[in-house]
From TrEMBL:
<protein>
    <recommendedName>
        <fullName>DUF641 domain-containing protein</fullName>
    </recommendedName>
</protein>
<feature type="region of interest" description="Disordered">
    <location>
        <begin position="1"/>
        <end position="26"/>
    </location>
</feature>
<feature type="domain" description="DUF641">
    <location>
        <begin position="32"/>
        <end position="69"/>
    </location>
</feature>
<dbReference type="InterPro" id="IPR006943">
    <property type="entry name" value="DUF641_pln"/>
</dbReference>
<dbReference type="Pfam" id="PF04859">
    <property type="entry name" value="DUF641"/>
</dbReference>
């Protein structure tokens, strides 16, 4: 655990940091097909993750040692 003085210093340093938003022009210049492909890939990856998680849950409930790898 950090001493109190160190925590306060870190808080002050993080509070003084500035956030600079990225320009929207870059996103607007992409073609609709490119954006559609990007969104499609994102949804496909999320679906894949969900599927893997469900398979993990099914493999452990009820406990069957043969299904666990």
């Amino acid at each position: 655990m950090l001493p109190t003085g160190v925590k306060e210093t870190q808080l002050r340093e993080s509070n003084s940091q500035k956030v600079h938003p990225q320009p929207m022009e870059e996103a607007l210049n992409q073609t609709p097909k490119a954006l559609e492909a990007l969104v499609s890939k994102i949804f496909m990856n999320i679906s894949s993750l969900k599927s893997a998680y469900i398979q993990l849950l099914v493999a452990h409930t009820p406990y069957e040692p043969d299904k666990i790898q």
